Amino acid sequence: MTAVEFNHQIASLQDTLELFTRRFTKDQEESEDLIQDTVLKALTYRDKFKKNTNLKGWLYTIMRNTFINNYRKAQRARTTHDDTKELYYLNVEDKHTFTSPDSTYEYKDIMKCVNSIREDLQIPFKMHVEGYKYHEIADHLEIPIGTVKNRIFHARKEIQNKLVAYRT
Length: 168
Hints:
Layout lengths: L2 H10 L1 H8 L6 H17 L10 H24 L22 H16 L2 H11 L4 H8 L3 H18 L6
Helix pairs in contact: 2-3, 2-4, 3-4, 6-8, 7-8
């Protein structure tokens, strides 16, 4: 089949392709994009098309695979992966900065509370705040990881109780 015949047959299947896109999307623009991608891939890989093969079926396969690949790419773009050893992923936006005068006093009060808790709670808590992982704290202090988590939990509770003035 010549390139002109191939192009003509693909052009004649445009309406069929448009109906087929309805299986994947109801959005008109997305449908048109899918058709365009399918036709582009078919023209690009024309040499892969075998003679005496169902062209419509070949185009449907290209369209379906294109849709699946686009969907998976969109899902990966929205997914965050936690690759840490302990599956501990901290993704908290830091909205609090200590730049205003009031914030400076807040910071001093918080640090006063942190420094006033028992040392066995304070050290793991400060290390955790500085970014150490639980297992790193446990190794450094030579205590079990469960004890580290427990001490950080109790440190937070004590600090929260001491910061009653800032509760809203």
